[in-house]
Amino acid sequence: MDVMWSASEPQSVRAVLEELNRGRRPPLAYTTVMTVMARLAEKDILRRKKDGRGYVYEAAVSDTAGIAVRDVIRDFGDNAIASFVEQARADPELAKRLERLMRKQ
Q1: Cβ distance 4 to 48 under 8 Å?
Q2: Minimal CA–CA distance to 38: which of 59, 57, 62?
Q3: SS3 at position 63
Q4: DSSP 8-state secondary structure symbol assigned to residue 29
């Protein structure tokens, strides 16, 4: 994911493979990287779009916290959100931080 987060444009599997294999011994196989990237796209961690005969990928979340939050919401839905709201209500500092973050958007 670090390769994807540092990219300024969508990346092909080949481009990611080359970056990952820079200085790596033994090198990763193309099919290994392709499989991992396809699975991350299935989990909505990467977005992919058709580009010729293959795909290019870009990050759908901005960091590991985004992945964790997405997983919690996916797995627990409204219960996770309700729990977060309860915690914010019980913690005035957390509620203030949340309000500031929401105003930024």
Answers
A1: no
A2: 57
A3: coil
A4: P
**Rounded-to-5 percentages of helix, strand, coil across the chain:** 65, 15, 25
CA distance 84 to 82: 5
| 62-86: pLDDT as tens digits | 999 999 998 999 999 999 999 999 9
Query: Tokens at residue 91, please?
Result: 């913690």
- Local structure of residue 43 (DSSP, 8 states): T
Max Cα distance, the chain (Å): 53
Domains of the chain, CATH where assigned: 2-59 (1.10.10.10), 64-104 (no CATH)
Peptide bond into 26 cis (omega under 30): yes
* Rounded Cα gap, residues 74 and 68, in angstroms: 10
**pTM of this structure:** 0.77
Rounded Cα distance between 75 and 70, Å, is: 9
**How many Å apart are CA 105 and CA 95, to the nearest integer?**
16
